[in-house]
Amino acid sequence: FVVFLFDVARKRLLSKNCAMFQCNNIVLLLVCYDRFTIMTQQGTQFEKYLRNGSEIFRTYCPPDFSGLKIVFMFPRAPQQKYIDVYPDDDQCGSSSQLKDDKNQQQNYEAEVIVYRALERLEEIMIVLHSLEYSHFQYHLGDASHVRRKCDICKKKAANKEGECDFLVIGANYFIIIEVKNMCHIGDKSDLKDQDMNDQKFQALAGTFQKSLKQRKKVADMIKRFSKHLTILQFTAYPYFSKKYQDEFLLSREQKSTIIFEEDLNCFRDWWEENVKDFILEEPINCEMRKNHEKVRDLLLAVWCTDSKGRCDMSKCSLGKSIVDIDKELHSGRFTLRGNNPEVISTPQLVKDFLGVENLSKEQFEVLNSAEKFLFINGPAGAGKTVVLIAKILQLA
User: Fold this and answer.
1) At what angle are helices 286-304 and 194-225 packed, to 10 degrees?
2) What string of DSSP letters covers 342-380?
3) Tens of pLDDT along 105-155?
4) Exposure string (b/e) for 72-109, b if CB count within 10 Å is 16 or more?
5) Cα 20 off chain centre by
């Protein structure tokens, strides 16, 4: 328990570059106990989330006095969910699981496109990527809702209530963006059969209706915190061209909330027309600003807090992103089900010593090559060193 407290104190003090880190362990323990008590025992859960969010904002969103407009992206880099290289469709055969894995990878890549577009904007704002919230967090602004299993909705507090692909927090607005893949819709080769064409566009409209429900859920959660807020909602289709929008079975108003492939390619222009021109630039009054800051802090805390109520503020740091991505890349867990023909399980000896679960087909061929001399060329992170060490272990 003492070690745990020491670790918490070290983490807290380092995050703020506190000079007291140089003090002895007893001082650290006292500081930690004081902070731990404040965070967990005083006040309601609502107040705890407010305090956590306020500390996150002060620590990771410092004011910039250089005049530059900075987008604070959380996490600092897109979460590395999938790192697979999949074969072409004609090599997938009848494997529905493999096609599902490939679709998951395309979903992730679609979110990365939106992430990069938001990252390049010259705005002072916070972007939360992949905001997941529990049943309790969804009802955090509802004083009548109990933390334990609710008799009305029959859900446990830790149950996952929903998620949001991107939540943008601006100076006086919130923007909800859901991302949908559907990359095959924009392929001209798929549009020859009219019946198949109609089915695909109906499916596309279905994904939009699903995104509407997701968007509304997040907007309702924000309004539970404060009703008088400006909330904009959009659905992004990074692989869907605007030239097919007439085939989209939606109303004109619904189409206006879609971010097409061309919009993402010229995202600053789209932002000026659909966000900045829409939001009034007039200053908000003191009460509105306080409400906005309160909701901002609550959302930051929700993003950093898991379903069990544990707040990990380091999720906002660049170091955490680097460590997480490095761990995923190093482990080599290429696919969820291990049924990809381009991925081969690593020999047990290499697994034991390197902790690498899988190799690509090309890496595996190099490892088992009988050639006495091989010239291996590849960019940083391609796995050259892993193969070299694996070969040494194989020959030892």
Assistant:
1) 120
2) TEEEPPHHHHHHH---EEEHHHHHHHT---S-------T
3) 788 889 999 999 999 998 889 999 999 999 889 988 676 676 666 667 777
4) bbbbbbbbbebbbebeeeeebeebeebeebbebbbbbb
5) 34
Q: What is the token pair recorded at 237? A: 């289709």
196: its two tokens: 């198949």
362, burial (CB in 10 Å: exposed 0-12, middle 13-18, buried 19+)? middle
CA-based torsion, 277, 109, 298, 328: positive or negative? negative
Confidence band for 69, pLDDT divided at 50, 70 and 90: confident
Residue located via tokens 């908000």: 284
* Angstrom distance (rounded) from CA 201 to CA 208: 11
CA–CA dist 358, 332 (Å, integer): 5
Q: Return d(Cα 305, Cα 284) in angstroms, integer.
A: 30
Question: What does pTM read for this prediction?
Answer: 0.73
Q: Which residues contact 249 (CB under 8 A, 6 or more apart)?
A: 201, 202, 204, 205
Name the average pLDDT for the chain.
77
Length of the chain: 396
Contact 317, 56 (CB under 8 A): no
Q: Residue 264 and residue 377: Cα distance in Å, rounded? A: 34
